[in-house]
User: Which sequence fits this backbone?
């Protein structure tokens, strides 16, 4: 028994002496806590930046519950990493395609950041956005339309409803939603919320013990991408760029 303990302490001592990167590589295993996306999907950030993407929907209760933690993750990213958001359209029966259209319209009009939290709260807390029957349960019938979204965004921004609608019905937004659907397919995402690092790694959130581990793994993979791309180590703390952008 003493001999076994001595060997165990020896192994633990050796692990303690490993560099932090090596320890992380032992902790996080490809195929377990994350998978490699092959081929890698395109990214939307400038050269020299590393993209961390949340695939989400305003109609997803799990995305609503994760909102604060995703914001903590965004704020924890180093200066060379950028958080982006892709809205899914998986569930037409719960108005996800319309919510996707509304999100990309808000993004095109520059109001996605200011209205991101309000949209989640309007659906899941106050019921102000007419998607759910919070008292009776279930989805309201008929489903809310893009006109309802335009009125909601008008209340929470300086954009008039008619301006919002004109953009929502434009070719630009058609292209944006089609691009989002194609990207989600390329990323091999089948549910929300999902986290992707630089179009190459999908996080298996259900296999992690909580958001502390999720953030640690994302930061580890950002570091892996920095090494792969031979980017310089970042200096300083990241700014706080826009949510929902």
Assistant:
């Amino acid at each position: 028994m003493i001999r076994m303990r001595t060997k165990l302490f020896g192994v633990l001592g050796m692990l303690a002496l490993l560099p932090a990167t090596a320890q992380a590589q032992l902790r996080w295993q490809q195929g377990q806590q994350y998978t490699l996306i092959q081929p890698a999907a395109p990214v939307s950030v400038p050269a020299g930046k590393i993209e961390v993407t949340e695939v989400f929907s305003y109609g997803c209760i799990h995305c609503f519950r994760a909102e604060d933690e995703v914001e903590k993750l965004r704020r924890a990213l180093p200066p060379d990493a950028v958080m982006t958001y892709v809205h899914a359209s998986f569930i037409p029966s719960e108005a996800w395609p319309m919510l996707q259209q509304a999100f990309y319209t808000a993004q095109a009009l520059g109001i996605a950041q200011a209205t991101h939290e309000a949209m989640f709260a309007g659906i899941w807390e106050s019921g102000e956005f007419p998607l759910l029957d919070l008292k009776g349960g279930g989805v309201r019938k008929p489903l809310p339309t893009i006109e309802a979204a335009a009125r909601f965004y008008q209340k929470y921004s300086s954009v008039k409803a008619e301006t919002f609608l004109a953009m929502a019905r434009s070719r630009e937004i058609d292209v944006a939603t089609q691009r989002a659907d194609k990207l989600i397919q390329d990323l091999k995402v089948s549910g929300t919320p999902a986290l992707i690092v630089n179009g190459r790694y999908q996080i298996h959130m259900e296999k992690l013990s909580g958001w502390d581990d999720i953030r640690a793994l994302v930061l580890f993979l950002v570091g892996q991408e920095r090494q792969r791309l031979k980017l310089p180590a970042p200096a300083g703390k990241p700014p706080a760029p826009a949510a929902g952008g």
